Amino acid sequence: MRTNEKDGSAASHITRILILSYFLALATGLISGAEFSRLATPFLPEPTASFAMSAVVIFLSALVLIGVYRRPAALILALALFWASYMTMFATGDLTGFWRDLALLGGLLMSAGVGAGLSIPRRSPEELPEKEVVQRIVSTPQFEVEAPRRNSITRFREDLNLAREA
Fold this sequence. Notes:
Elements: H1 9-28, H2 46-66, H3 70-92, H4 95-112, H5 153-165
Helix pairs in contact: 1-2, 1-4, 2-3, 3-4
């Protein structure tokens, strides 16, 4: 059950799904854009490089989507997108595609920062080492604070007359 209705988690989930749908469409070849296979062609022959990079992109997208190792997977996916888009820009001269991919990269990094997923386990205060446990000390002040005096209308008039004379 959610405790705060305005925490934005629904918006972050929808944003994550939209961004990852772009990566899945790139990996499956439904749309043209950054060619991830360019990253593996120096090491693998063309059909194998294309299948391998598609599998890597789909795997990383799934990790980001379900929240398992979300930040590392999103960072690796962002690096792969940047370099694939950069190499595609130089190969084809498509500068607009490069800027589109940079905008998607920013959205991916923003969505990766929301929520901990399973990559960062939460610890209770009992599990923290003793040097990390901070105790709150609550004390009462030893002096009494004097309430501010209310200014009367005559004091304001005196100040106004002084300002007029100057």
